[in-house]
Amino acid sequence: MRLETNRLVIREFVPEDWESVHRYASDPKVTRYTLWGPNTEEETKDYVAGMKAMQQKEPRTHYEWAVTRKLDGELIGGCGINVSGSNGEIGYCFHADHWGQGYASECAKAMLEFGFRQLGVHRIYATCRPENIGSERVMQKIGMQKEGYLREHLPTNKGGFANSWLYSILSHEYVPES
């Protein structure tokens, strides 16, 4: 499975991706707002192996992909959509060197297109930690609406629980780019 945007190739993970993934998954700056990380090498290898195993599940409900630049094939992040009933949850994570260049928005738009057009979901949502202004801007930029504030709804591997903003978009609100 493979998706393409103007500047990106969004593809399945392969085992050899672990080192590129580890470059961002082990970075405290990148994982500051995640529920996981910073990863050890073993955790990153386990993650990539888990994503490879997920590709074989039938029916498939979890799609986690490597994000590479068309220009040079460099793996710069990851994204995904997980489906439960008529809902899909999207997420994205990029190496800090590639923040602020529109890659997350470009990738998130591809997730909306895939979720609504290929998977037929009715609602796609995403969450971010309230301090993660960059991620919140991505959700706004792709047309999602703020639904609310989720208080301590998810445990983290860093101790304690995370608060999140919740954003969503419905299939009839989605306007694909032409």
Automatic annotation (TrEMBL):
Keywords: Acyltransferase, Transferase
Family: Belongs to the acetyltransferase family. RimJ subfamily.
A Pfam family that the UniProt record links to this protein: Acetyltransf_3
CDD domains named among the record's database cross-references: NAT_SF
Coiled coil: none
Residues covered by the N-acetyltransferase domain: 8-170
Keyword Transmembrane helix: no
Protein name per UniProt: RimJ/RimL family protein N-acetyltransferase
